[in-house]
Design brief:
- The complex is a heterodimer of chains A (79) and B (473).
- By secondary structure, chain A is mainly alpha-helical.
- Chain A contains four helices and no strands.
- The radius of gyration of chain A is 12 Å and the shape is globular.
- The N and C termini of chain A lie far apart (29 Å).
- With 473 residues, chain B is α+β, with helices and mostly antiparallel strands.
- Chain B has three domains: 157 residues, FAD/NAD(P)-binding domain, CATH 3.50.50.60; 153 residues, D-Amino Acid Oxidase, Chain A, domain 2; 75 residues, no CATH class.
- Chain B has 13 helices and 18 strands.
- In chain B, the strands form two sheets. In chain B, strands 3, 4, 5, 6, 11, 12, 13, 14, 15 and 16 form a ten-stranded mixed beta sheet that branches. In chain B, strands 1, 2, 7, 8, 9, 10, 17 and 18 form an eight-stranded mixed beta sheet that branches.
- The relative contact order of chain B is 0.16.
- The chains are: A mainly alpha (79), B alpha+beta (473).
- At the A-B interface, helix 2 of A face helix 12 and helix 13 of B.
Chain lengths: 79, 473
């Protein structure tokens, strides 16, 4: 059984119009057509789903799907 | 090639576009030692100076909807720059041995595409006449080179405006500065700035460090991002964004003796063709606000298609047969109030020469004087209306939505495109109502729209708001 995708992949799938199952950690956001507006909508939807703020600066450093999942990691397992 | 070296100088200028080079030239004329940090050779991708049409537009940048105070201020400042321009070019010509000619006059044409064109042309003529400068209405048939698809309804000749080849101007200044014994030039980008004892230290990409008593930041919208956190806080520069523009130079199948332009249309930049040497013609320009400018990104086919479409529809249909010589991308630095940032910042050793948006080539010598005054006679320019220490007025989003949706529909239609009778107004009203509801709401769309607006609170953001709202499905 495939586990349900986390918020990163499900929101990326929603914005890019691709199936979440096709997204790999190495996949680059730029290759998913994510420009600056795409990143902004990504930030807003992730904030809504996770309830945690996500700054523009933090998101600017994200290059790959894996980067985004690591950025959200502390949110899923709060200390 | 110098590496890991440390240079000490009176003033370090970061930026090798026209604002940086003009400022360096002025400072050298005041007997200061100057070091320039910025690419001298290479492609200069993204540099606004070399992508500019470079019309010296004192009056034709006026829009009918601009506040009278803003028109008075901007026209007066541009007029100061224009009045001294030929003498400045003569000084450059003498020092470089290269004459850079001004081509006199600019035509402004109005057509049925821009619903407010008549009002814009009236406002432009009124601004010229208020400053004692001629503005002559003429029949569009009198405009040499004009043969558009969308018939022009009127034309305005502004003999005191002019155009120039900005590439030739950059080259002439480069010749002077490269040879000047008190000028050093690091042919490399700056990577950071911090305070170092009594000096400011500029890190250069080649590993060198420049120590200076004064720093001039003149490298466009991203330049304040070079400052380390402490310095940035003290400088307290108003935010800068960039209007990305694509332009081309072609060999046109007709003669063009003087520049021809449409008026500005709100956030949608008009079309213009500008004569260059040897029968070449410059065509400009697209204008898209970028919140995170990518200076290395080349022109997209969509940008080129928009440019070609508008030029053939509004200027001359035979441009379809023109031979493409060069494509350039430039990023015009712009502030929320659309006024430049010239002179001393909140930090007494840090000065700005940026934010010139569409008027950088015209304003370059004026900026150089203001910045140099702030260095050689501190305090003299503190109250200048373009001071980086001014309070920058930020428009309200709902106010902008209420007044700018017409421009949005015009931009979507492009020149030559038309909607059935009555549907233009219908779409305007609907877009206004929809954006108003979204911006006032609490949905993720509303959050995205407001977040984008906070990042770029200016009219040019409106097309991006439409895009952002539509991306959340």
């Amino acid at each position: 059984m495939t586990p349900a995708p986390g918020p990163a992949r499900s929101v990326l799938a929603e914005i890019s119009g691709r199936a979440a199952s096709t997204l790999t950690p190495e996949g680059r956001l730029a290759d998913l057509g994510m420009d600056s507006l795409g990143r902004l909508t990504l930030a807003v939807l992730l904030e809504e789903r996770t309830g945690r703020p996500l700054s523009d600066e933090a998101l600017l450093k994200v290059r790959t799907v894996g980067d985004l999942e690591r950025l959200l990691e502390p949110m899923r397992h709060p200390a | 090639m110098t590496t890991m070296s440390e240079a000490v100088t009176d003033v370090v200028v970061v930026g090798s576009g026209l604002l940086g080079l003009s400022t360096a030239f002025e400072l050298l004329n005041r007997d200061l030692d100057v070091t320039i940090v910025g690419p001298r050779t290479g492609e200069h991708n993204g540099q606004a100076s070399r992508a500019a049409g470079a019309m010296l537009t004192v009056f034709s940048e006026v829009e009918a909807t601009h506040a009278p105070d803003r028109i008075r201020l901007e026209v007066a400042q541009r007029l100061i720059a224009r009045t001294g321009y030929q003498a400045w070019l003569d000084r450059i010509g003498e020092a470089s041995g290269r004459q850079v000619p001004l081509i006199p006059g600019v035509w402004v044409i109005g057509n049925g595409y821009g619903t407010d064109d008549t009002a814009h042309l009236k406002a432009i003529a009124a601004a010229a006449e208020a400053h004692g400068s001629p503005a002559e209405f003429a029949a569009p048939g009198d405009v040499a080179g004009l043969a558009p698809q969308v018939r022009a309804s009127e034309a305005l000749w502004l003999p005191d405006e002019a155009s120039i080849d900005p590439g030739a101007l950059v080259e002439a200044l480069t010749t002077i500065l490269s040879a000047h014994r008190r000028c050093r030039w690091f042919n490399s980008a700056a990577t950071g700035v911090h305070e170092h004892g009594e000096h400011l230290a500029v890190q250069v990409a080649d590993g060198s460090t420049v120590l200076a008593a004064h720093l001039v930041l003149a490298a466009g919208a991203g330049v304040t991002g070079l400052l380390d956190a402490d310095l940035a806080q003290e400088v307290a520069a108003p935010p800068l964004r960039s209007g990305r523009g694509v332009s081309v130079v072609v060999r046109a199948p007709f003669a063009l003796p003087a520049a021809v332009r449409s008026p500005n249309r709100g956030f949608a930049c008009g079309s213009h063709m500008v004569p260059r040497a040897d029968g070449r013609v410059y065509l400009g320009a697209t204008n898209r606000l970028s919140t995170e400018p990518d200076y290395g990104r080349r022109a997209t086919l969509d940008e080129l298609a928009t440019l070609m479409h508008d030029a053939t529809a509004e200027l001359n249909t035979t441009l379809r047969d023109a031979e493409l010589i060069e494509v350039r991308v430039g990023h015009r630095p712009v502030t929320a109030d659309h006024l430049p940032l010239f002179g001393r910042t909140g930090h007494p050793m840090v000065h700005l020469a940026t934010g010139t948006y569409r008027c950088g080539v015209l304003l370059a010598p004026h900026a150089a004087t203001i910045v140099a005054d702030g260095i050689t006679s501190p305090g003299s320019t503190a109250e200048h209306p373009y001071s980086p220490r001014r309070q920058v007025h930020v428009p309200a989003l709902q106010e902008l939505i209420a007044t700018s949706t017409r421009g949005l529909v015009e931009m979507l239609c492009q020149p030559g495109g038309s909607l059935p009778a009555g549907s233009q107004e219908l779409l305007e009203r609907f877009l206004g109502a929809a954006l108003h509801e979204i911006a006032a709401g609490s949905s993720p769309r509303a959050v995205a729209v407001r977040r984008l607006w906070e990042r770029a609170p200016m009219a040019e953001c409106l097309p991006l708001l439409l895009d952002a709202a539509g991306r959340i499905r």
